[in-house]
Specification:
The protein is mainly alpha-helical. The chain folds into four domains: 75 residues, Serine Threonine Protein Phosphatase 5, Tetratricopeptide repeat; 113 residues, Tetratricopeptide repeat domain (Serine Threonine Protein Phosphatase 5, Tetratricopeptide repeat, Alpha Horseshoe), CATH 1.25.40; 106 residues, Tetratricopeptide repeat domain (Serine Threonine Protein Phosphatase 5, Tetratricopeptide repeat, Alpha Horseshoe); 50 residues, no CATH class. The N and C termini lie far apart (102 Å).
Length: 409
Amino acid sequence: MVNTPVVHRSWSLVALAACVIALPCVYYWMVYPTVASARLLERARSQMEAHDYTLAAETLQSVLALRHQDGEAAFLLGRARRCLEDYSAARSMLSEARLEGYVPDLIDLEHSLIRLQSTGLGGPDEQAMRLWVTARHPEDRVILEALSRAAIDSFAMAEAHGFLSTWIDRAPNDWLPLVWRADILARFRLLDRARSDYEQALKCRPGAPGAEAGLGKALLLDGQDTALAETQLRAGLKADPNNTDCRAALAEVFERTGRMEEAFREAQQVLATQPNHTEALRLLARLDLDAGRNTEALIRLELADRMAPGDVATVSALAQALARAGKTEKAQQQEKRVTELRTDSKALEQLTQEILDKSANADVRFRIGTTMARMGRTTEAQGWYSSALRLDPNHAAARQALGNTIPKQ
């Protein structure tokens, strides 16, 4: 009996030691996953808000690794995958979110947006989403993003411009619609307006993906400030070294400023990644012509003309190469094309300006489609004909023209 206090004290020490050992384990297995996943989920929400969908997807995967049954994380991952156009993974994650009891209406909305983006404009999903936008749905920014994506993928540029303008009006500090709208404006040589949108996007988010490269290309097309164009293109390429359009534009800056070896090297690097890149092919063809490599120039230019028909610069260089090769008749045919394309390009700029400012006009959309079809830009022409028919389903000329552009089975 004399040793009893010692025994009790020994067991107390053992119990204390067990607690000391157990506490970190309890924290690691029970508290840490909850705290860490909550922090990661908050980070993912911010990344989604900033349209950093790849980063958000990675963060949300980490959340689900820590806390498997998280309906919101599964839902957000499904949304991120939709925005990254990985529709199968998006549907899978939305199914998990539903099993976890996440908001059914939001899950149903995401499935509608997947269908919209998968099939393009047209059909009941587009009409429903337009109504939700008009009604100021709480998720209207998400809906406008999906509508814009679907319109751009459908070559429905008037609709895309309209959706993006609504989005910008409602969220003026959001950088993504500014970049997308600027891309459309630059595509139709409305360079002052494109430059303004790119610059505003960079104010909203310094280094906004695509904005620096887009601004550099717009400045290059404008031709007034080559040095600033180079600065912006270098910044864009630093942010995204795999941006072949940016690298090809930088190669053209080098060519314009007499740095031919650098121009050749950059263009070759583009073609190593993307063998059919039109601008790189055209630039190398010009360098071939200057070096007397006429056969190589002809091969590149003919490929570029097939890849992107209707480009004045390509056809003009092709005419020059054919003339040097002594193929006079073919050269004259291409020179005639150059004249026609310049006329059509000027008309296209005027028509596009009109349609972007006054989008509800089926006849103007039909005329844009006809001009593009004449230039050989068939896919874009189909988009404009379809756009005219969405406004006026009874537009017989647009319906017939659309049918004529679809290959017969």
